[in-house]
Amino acid sequence: MRFHVVTLFPEAFEGATSYSILGRAVHRGLVSVTVTDIRKFTFDRHGTADDYQFGGGPGMVMKPEPIFRAVEDVLESLPPEEPDLIPILLMSPQGEQLNQRLIDELAVAPDIVIVCGHYAGVDERIRTGLATHEISIGDYVLTGGELAAMVVIDAVSRFIPDVVGSAENVHEDSITSGLLQHPLYTRPVEFRGMTTPEVLRSGNHAEIARWRGRQQSLERTLRLRPDLLRFAELSNSDRIYLEQLGWSGESGDPSNNPADQARERQALDR
């Protein structure tokens, strides 16, 4: 997998791609991250990449010419059959919310180009005439698209073969599996009055799998992210167990979550 980042601040990516799992993947050649400085594609000696808004308004807007030129330079460096297949991502709070479905889609692309916005935003023609995807990592605004681009790189890289030691670990993670992950414990058995569940120390692998594999994941998902249950693949036994916990089975809406209902009652009592 090859990531091509187009940014005003290439130095922001130096540390993010040099440590931990992603750093090892880069070192082993499983993932590459090349960074293109937008200012190298500007037209004046000052490297001017932004300008005032037409019609007035606060904040500067990133100009279309240098970004188009930078992305086109990246695409020209790729094999001739690839450019039409390459996702060009514009990181923006106005974009489609990043989720596991979108990550799965991106993970099969041979290359990904990521454009990092900055200042008040980018010229609209970048959005409509260049980007294939406009992506947001959440309903909040960052100072620039660099951190959001790093999130995409990290999330997609985990699905590249051999980047993470065990593929099973990746597919059983929270969200990826469709549910939240079961609680995790390690030594010591007891810590500050909190004890590891006895079933995990029983040696009974069937009981451990039953407790850890579904029941705890279902219970945690219902308590913390009931919205995920709308899309999870649930067996009849899963549904029965959830209904015993108070799940209505209608929509997975948080309003159906017993824990949330209890918190709402407590708030009203106060």
From TrEMBL:
| Key words of the record | Cytoplasm, Methyltransferase, S-adenosyl-L-methionine, Transferase, tRNA processing
> GO cellular-component terms in the record?
cytosol
- Note the CDD domains from the entry: TrmD-like
Localization annotation: Cytoplasm
Question: Tell me, which GO biological process terms does this entry list?
Answer: tRNA N1-guanine methylation
Molecular function (Gene Ontology), one example: tRNA (guanine(37)-N1)-methyltransferase activity
Task: Look up the EC number in the record and give it.
Answer: 2.1.1.228
In this chain, composition skew of type Basic and acidic residues spans 261-270
Q: Does the keyword tRNA processing apply?
A: yes
Reaction equations catalysed = guanosine(37) in tRNA + S-adenosyl-L-methionine = N(1)-methylguanosine(37) in tRNA + S-adenosyl-L-homocysteine + H(+)
- Stated name of the protein: tRNA (guanine-N(1)-)-methyltransferase
Q: Which organism is it from?
A: Geodia barretti
